[in-house]
Amino acid sequence: MRSLQDIKFSILELVPIRDDKSVQFSLHHALELAQHAEKLGYERLWLAEHHNMDGIASSATAVLLGYLLANTSTLKVGSGGIMLPNHAPLVVAEQFGTLQTLYPNRIELGLGRAPGTDQMTMRALRRGRQETEDQFPQDVLEILSYFKEAQPNQRIVATPGQNTNVPVWLLGSSLFSAQLAARLGLPYSFASHFAPRMLGQAIQLYRDNFQPSEYLDKPYVSMGIPTVVALTDEEANYLATSAYQRVLGLLRGQSLKLKAPVERMDDLWSVAEKMSVDNFYAMAQIGSIETVKAGLEKILAQYNVDEFIFTCDIYDTDKRLENFEHLIHLKNQ
């Protein structure tokens, strides 16, 4: 049985926008977090692509990755993920090939098959393109081909991109991407930070069907975990009310800007809404260092993943940085 010391700890940054701060503040804080993660020894920091969401500032994912790469030196950064239905595969390959050329061995490309937004915004992103999620496997294969050495008489060459060997991951919250990642021999990251329902089934499907490849010789799985870690359970539960309000806004179609914590959530949500938030955060680890360590050990014993990738929606930016300090501390205890 593996321990927390045996697995990798990483960060998924959604670049949350506070209700009292500017977008610029959030973008600068994302860099502050990346630099903090580098000093603490996190394995990687990924950015997630979302669009038309007033509380998330990572829409131009590749651009923001360049900002983080230019101002860090060793941390692996990447996309968790690029929502492939929104993009032409060649453009993605050129963008990430450029980043790999400028910052060798530090960029990673995680790919998702959902649009990461609403239907109207999806149409605005695609501008008449008819790609669907069903085309996802072909698009993944096309991107992989752009990162390999060019073939004789290859008519379209990604420049930069060709022969850069950018590491590619598949992401998902259902069984589709798990099966595709297994067939292609790619690492797989499950989005249990917001959709944990099919986690166990997807991981088992991936492992059972994994085919060794030029990329991996055995399965590699990471899973998303929301966290709010503080010095006491009471403080963590108080800080977590910002995260609960954010999900409540998502359920109601309201603002996703991060709000200050409150003493009582019962005044804000109905019983049904509380159940929905609890389901959303079924994998969340909220509490003191000791409480969260015990929770993570329980998850690891159940799913035996290779890596945890943590999210955190804490309003106070200093407390947010401390959250990731606490996580590294409990890993090394």
Keywords:
TIM Barrel; globular; 333 residues; 8-stranded parallel beta barrel; oxidoreductase; single chain; 43% helix; alpha/beta; 12 helices; 9 strands; Luciferase-like monooxygenase
Spatial separation of the terminal alpha carbons:
17 Å
- Would you tell me the structural class of the helices and strands? alpha/beta
- CATH classification, class level: Alpha Beta
What is the average of the pLDDT values?
94
Protein name: Luciferase-like monooxygenase
Domain Luciferase-like: 21-297
GO molecular function, one term: oxidoreductase activity, acting on paired donors, with incorporation or reduction of molecular oxygen
Pfam family, one: Bac_luciferase
Structure description:
The two termini are 17 Å apart. The chain has helices at residues 23-40, 61-70, 89-102, 119-126, 136-147, 175-184, 199-209, 233-239, 241-252, 271-280, 289-303, 317-332; strands at 8-13, 44-47, 76-83, 107-112, 168-172, 188-190, 221-230, 285-288, 307-311. β3, α3 and β4 form a beta-alpha-beta unit. With 333 residues, the protein is α/β, with parallel strands linked by helices. It has one domain (4-227, 288-332): TIM Barrel, CATH 3.20.20.30. One of its GO terms (cellular component) is cytosol. This is Luciferase-like monooxygenase. Pfam families: Bac_luciferase (PF00296).
Give a quick precis of the structure.
By secondary structure, the chain is α/β, with parallel strands linked by helices.
